[in-house]
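Q: I'm writing up a methods section and want to include an example of the input and output format. Could you take the sequence below and give the corresponding predicted structure tokens, formatted cleanly so I can copy it straight into the document?
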Amino acid sequence: MRVDLDSLIGSVLGGRYRVLRRVGAGGMGAVFEAEQLDLRRRVALKVLAELDPQSVARLQQEAMTAGGLQSQHVVAIFDFQLGAPPFLVMELLTGESLSTLLRREGQLEASRATRIAAQMLAGLEAAHRVGITHRDVKPSNVWISRSAAGEEHVKLLDFGIAKMHDVPGGVRTATGHFLGTPSYMAPEQLRGQPADARSDIHAVGVVLFEMLTGARPWRGANAPALPFEIIEHVPPPLDALVPATPRALAAAVARALEKDPSVRFVTAAEMAQTLQATLPTSWSAVKAAAPATLPEAPSAAAPATLPEAPSAAASGGRTNTFDVAAPPPKAASERLAATLASPGAAPPPDAHPASGRHVASSPTQPSPHAAPSPHPKHGARGVGDRPAPPARPMPLARPSSSTNTVVLVILGVGVLILLASVMVMCVAVISTPTKSSKNTIDASAPASASASASARTFDPSF
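A: Here is the clean output for your methods example:
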């Protein structure tokens, strides 16, 4: 039995939902914008066109699976009614599907595609944690809305053929084949093997490949050849097709597309973290986080600055600012040692501070990294700090006044002793008679002879 969907506009379904207009259609039915009368809010109604048991079972399966998920990246389910016709009540979304976006733009820039895929994986992780495998991840089941600031927000749709791992079997067609879209199915699904979280990860790899290249990774154009292509064909590396693709991103996609599920990412969260690590930090994020830079030194030369890098504030660290001394004169540059002054301290007035601390780097050469600022006692000199030893030999210091006084006293005493000795000798010479002097000379002769004899006993060879 088939329902005339156009006749539903203006009617009230389930006594609570007034159908306003059609906003989408598919093979199983249509989606309408409606008003929930008791809460006066706008919702979306997914109404079945066919009332066969299998279609009803799929709609009920979607209500059971997606209705219990708590994730901002999965469409919210509010209600489900098995009336005539059966319908599902969901949040009303604005925006467009990823398939519509790709038809319009062809392929996406790497960082944009990566962000979309990471949000898809966040929604899948929420499902996998409660034992649900989506099994039909494809661009038409990925919805993209935009905030007032232009940021894209992703939600997963259509859990109609999702598999609950605590429920045996799954939703099957009348011929016994699992439902799904062959182009996005994993090799194990095409072999009839059970699907799990790694099958969804494979589908994300196909979607990400398509976003980056504008085409799916399989060359098979017809349905009979496609399963063999997916099972046997290894897609070319992404960075060979799109050279601008980061290597880490190309490697992540290749891992997601592995034929062996055990080689793929174990969880959607693991793949999401890998993708996010490939994203470059935007200039606005760097500017907002205020990266550490070195202010201009008091010199006509160019200031030394740190190269652009992600701020430490993004990881909970602190952003430090360091002062750098001006470049020293060329004649003394070889004697300088590298250092950093304390944060906020003014640079030294000249290139040779008393502490002997300098920065020996070219003014045009950026500092490779920033070190934590030293304690003020060991950095710029302050009040009460002891002066550091000189960095080079200094000329001999002039004696202090106390030293001069001591030297003068010693010299004075010496002069007085010398004068006293001279006076004593003069008095002795004047008072001694000539004869006595002669006797003294004669008496001293034996002593001289004795001294000569003693001198001859010295053996120089000893």
